[in-house]
Write a structure and sequence with these properties.
With 325 residues, the chain is α/β, with parallel strands linked by helices. The protein has two domains: 64 residues, no CATH class; 259 residues, TIM Barrel (Alpha-Beta Barrel), CATH 3.20.20.220. It contains 13 helices and eight strands. It has an eight-stranded mixed β-sheet, with helices on one face. Helix 10 runs parallel beside helix 12. The protein starts with 6 loop residues before the first helix and ends with a strand.
């Protein structure tokens, strides 16, 4: 039985005008010259402090974002929950530089964990590694470059921030999704998240890493991690996605003269993605969060006899990520 053919069910929470607006937005997004022009004009208007916030809020923002803070998102969260659609408050701050900004992000994530702990409709919290530390420090640790004394102290503060939010997630029983970023900083994040899993995933998966399966090496990484988890007796939590930095990854690989970490084409990525979710569903002590819009992957996860849950991502900016159970 096809799951996605009944548009009456799929769009039951949308008014006709909201569907018309969505159709218009996606038609515009398909027009690449229009996107480039619109982006440039919007950036100029924002920098010039022109009064366009209302226009942005009534169009792009309201479609892709749940709100500007937790309370602002609640009407959308409650509305979706009536149809069995849960939400993730996605405070997607990344690439900051100042220690005060990193500490502010920790405070925000702790608030979201507490906010979610009180509501069944918000069962996950999420953050990005470079919301807690500079990209450059993650890159240096990934590349095994010796840190200065100042940098070592900086890295230790990153570790403390990770432990602070992971401990809060564990204490409040709120699973925590940690997003993936660019490959040249991801090694340090992976190692750090493995430490968090080993510490807080003793009884079940609370801490989740993210694998971007457009990277051809991620399935091998997952298999190696499974062996570590079996030896050290901890649970693996993993969000499986296709990926979000393809152009940047390929450009950097070409610029610096190394083989691209990205699969050669869409089909290879799909095969890699499906192989990862099949592997996870066959392993004990693994929790799978499958982030996908792909219909065939969804059938694979929720086929006959399957008891897993599929999570369908809705947004990638601050606000709401939604998934269906």
């Amino acid at each position: 039985m096809k799951l996605f053919d009944n548009t009456e069910i799929a769009f039951s929470l949308k008014t006709y005008s909201e569907l018309e607006r969505a159709y218009f937005l996606f038609k515009m997004i398909q027009n690449q010259p229009m996107v480039r022009i619109g982006t440039a004009v919007t950036n100029f208007a924002l920098k010039a402090h022109l009064p366009i916030e209302g226009l942005i809020r009534a169009t792009v923002f309201d479609h892709f974002c749940g709100g500007t803070n937790e309370e602002d998102c609640l009407p959308s969260i409650d509305k979706l929950y009536t149809k069995g659609v849960y939400s993730v408050l996605d405070y997607s701050v990344e690439g900051k530089e100042e220690e005060s900004e990193f500490d502010d992000t920790v405070t925000k994530i702790l608030k979201i964990i507490n906010f979610g702990q009180e509501r069944k409709s918000i069962p996950f919290a999420v953050f990005k590694p470079t919301g807690f530390g500079r990209f450059a420090i993650f890159q240096k640790v990934t590349e095994k470059i010796v840190l200065t004394i100042t940098e070592e102290a900086e890295w230790q503060r990153v570790i403390v921030r990770f432990h602070t939010v992971c401990k809060a997630a564990f204490k409040n029983n709120v699973p925590l999704l940690i997003d993936a970023e660019e490959s040249w900083m991801q090694g340090a994040a992976d190692t750090l998240i493995e430490e968090m899993m080993e510490t807080y995933n003793q009884e079940k998966a609370i801490i989740f890493n993210t694998l971007q399966m457009y990277r051809h090496d991620r399935l091998d990484y997952l298999k190696v991690l499974a062996e570590k988890a079996n030896q050290k007796r901890f649970h693996i939590g993993m969000k499986i996605v296709r990926g979000a930095y393809m152009e940047k990854e390929r450009f950097r690989a070409k610029e610096k003269g190394y083989d691209s970490p990205i699969c050669p084409d869409k089909q290879a990525t799909d095969l890699n993605y499906d192989a990862a979710i099949i592997f996870m569903m066959e392993q004990p002590n693994m929790a799978l969060f499958a982030g996908t819009h792909n219909e065939e992957s969804t059938y694979l996860i929720n086929g006959p006899g399957k008891k897993s849950t599929t999570f369908l991502r809705k947004t990638s900016v601050c606000g709401l990520d939604n998934y269906m159970v």
